[in-house]
Amino acid sequence: MYQFIIVDDEPLIRLGTLKKLEPLKDQIHCSGEAGNGKQALKLIEEFHPDLVILDMEMPVMDGTALLQYLEAEHIPAKVIVISGFSDFAYMRTAIKSGVVDYILKPIDPQDLNNAISSAIEQLERAAG
Q1: What is the pTM of this model?
Q2: 68, CA 20 to 30 Å: which among 49, 77, 83, 105?
Q3: What is the tens place of the pLDDT at every residue in 21-52?
């Protein structure tokens, strides 16, 4: 079973994302939720999640800063970005960081499930 965390400053988005992921509960487990990147760092240190579901626009530490941290520290977690912004700069940052997918809000459950499946495939290939 793979562990994931959700990082979004909107509690209702986090809750909705968890509900959309219920069909995958036999493959993934939520280890925690964070309202910003700084809180996410604590969860990453504690749980070493396989997957991070990340919003880009947040207070304190945004998604761009968290992506840069994950890359600089060679954190192997797969990242799926969920954002309300189709801003090209955010997308470019995400692509350069090697995210699995960039999904726009409102979240389409099938898009999210496809992204999770892709992340799981990448994790399994990496495990050999």
Answers
A1: 0.94
A2: 105
A3: 999 999 999 999 999 999 999 999 999 999 99
What is the rounded CA–CA span in Å between residue 121 and residue 128? 11
Residue 108 has which token pair? 């389409």
Collapsed DSSP state (helix, strand, coil) of residue 3: strand
d(CA 13, CA 7): 10
Residue pair 101/81 in contact (Cβ under 8 Å)? The answer is yes
Residues 6+ apart with CB under 8 A from 122: 78, 100
How does pLDDT run across 104-122, given as a tens digit for each residue? 989 999 999 999 999 999 9
Kindly give, in sequence order, each residue whose CB lies less than 8 Å from that of residue 107, ignoring residues fewer than 6 positions away: 13, 16, 17, 20, 82
Compute the distance between CA of residue 42 and CA of residue 56 in angstroms, rounded to an integer: 18
